[in-house]
Amino acid sequence: MITQPIRKLLFNGSPIKTFYITRLQQSQIREKVFLNVAGKNLDITRNNSMICLDPFCMAAWLPAHEAADLNAANAIIEFKTNGMLGASINVSLIETINTGKGSLLLFRIESVRNHQLNALKREMLFRYFLRSKKNTYDSRKVVSALYSYPRSIIIVSYADDEYCNVFPMDIHGYIEEEGIYLLGLRTTNITLDKILNAGKVVVCDTDTVDINSVYNLGKHSSTAPTPVDQLPFDTVKSEVFGFPVPACSGGYKEIEVFEHKKMGYHMLMIGRVINNKVLKPNPESLYHVGFLQFQNSNYTSIEGLF
């Protein structure tokens, strides 16, 4: 096939996929994210997150002194590595939520520009190698831009007297300054209503969790959750809610959901962390990194089912 020689020429034979999987400590992440608005360039590296993929939406948290009198109706979110621009996203403001010590800004993505590698390689990637009936050329560019910053994979846990579901996701964010957690859960997920009705959920890191176990959990989480006694890892109970937590996690957070907003295909849940349990200092996590960004990094790829 002609595909393989072209792939070797353009990408040194690297397997073509939407994103790569790697395992990192947070301190190993070199990418930075900035909110460029009203002549200001604000660092939102630790406080930016994806919240919906249809339509594409992001959230950014700013401390009160940065958010004061800020006109963020239109802004640009920039992804940089060692000062070099990797991608930029033009966003429009949907809503601003006062969080006490600052403000949570919800944005809709309007357009993107990808800058990694060169124009020929980007065009071949988006128009040819990643083409699919399930997405569009423009959506492939947006996803690549969003994953220009490594997105950690977490394990979400919910249980009650008659039901339990443990599943992975990467549409989330933690605002440490406020003790607030954001989760973007698909509206088709059968556990969503249960979480909203109970107002509680647990999120766990993926410190030493096997990647294939993670993806297997995600296969049927919206239809037929895996029973606790059939999970591919041992579990312990969380301290407050008693929800199952992978014994191989480095820590977990128990969250009380106090607000939710339907953003489109995903429901944004906003919760307060009532118990931040550290089981291991400086844990690692599995991360998704976009194909283009991964080519510019020295991260180690983990092969999995994806």
Instruction: Bin the strand percentage.
Output: 35-45%
Count of the separate structural domains: 2
Adjacency order of strands in the biggest sheet:
3-2-6-7-8-5-4
Quickly count the helices.
Answer: 7
Low-confidence stretches: none
Which CATH class of the largest domain?
Mainly Beta
Number-wise, the strands total: 19
**Main sheet?**
7 strands, antiparallel
InterPro entries: Split_barrel_FMN-bd
Protein name: Flavin reductase like domain-containing protein
Write the layout of secondary structure elements.
Layout: H1 3-11, E1 19-24, E2 31-37, E3 40-43, E4 48-53, E5 56-63, H2 64-67, E6 74-81, E7 84-98, E8 102-114, H3 119-129, H4 137-146, E9 151-152, E10 154-159, E11 164-169, E12 172-175, E13 180-186, H5 192-198, E14 200-204, H6 211-219, E15 235-237, E16 244-246, E17 251-262, E18 266-278, E19 285-290, H7 291-295
Antiparallel strand pairs: 1-19, 2-3, 2-6, 4-5, 5-8, 6-7, 7-8, 9-19, 10-11, 10-14, 12-13, 13-18, 14-17, 15-16, 17-18
Describe the model.
With 306 residues, the chain is α+β, with helices and mostly antiparallel strands. It has two domains: 3-150 and 287-295, Pnp Oxidase, Chain A; 153-285, Pnp Oxidase, Chain A (Roll), CATH 2.30.110.10. 18% of the residues lie in helices and 44% in strands. The chain contains seven helices and 19 strands. It has helices spanning 3-11, 64-67, 119-129, 137-146, 192-198, 211-219, 291-295, and strands spanning 19-24, 31-37, 40-43, 48-53, 56-63, 74-81, 84-98, 102-114, 151-152, 154-159, 164-169, 172-175, 180-186, 200-204, 235-237, 244-246, 251-262, 266-278, 285-290. The strands form four sheets. It has a seven-stranded antiparallel β-sheet. Strands 11-10-14-17-18-13-12 form a seven-stranded antiparallel β-sheet.
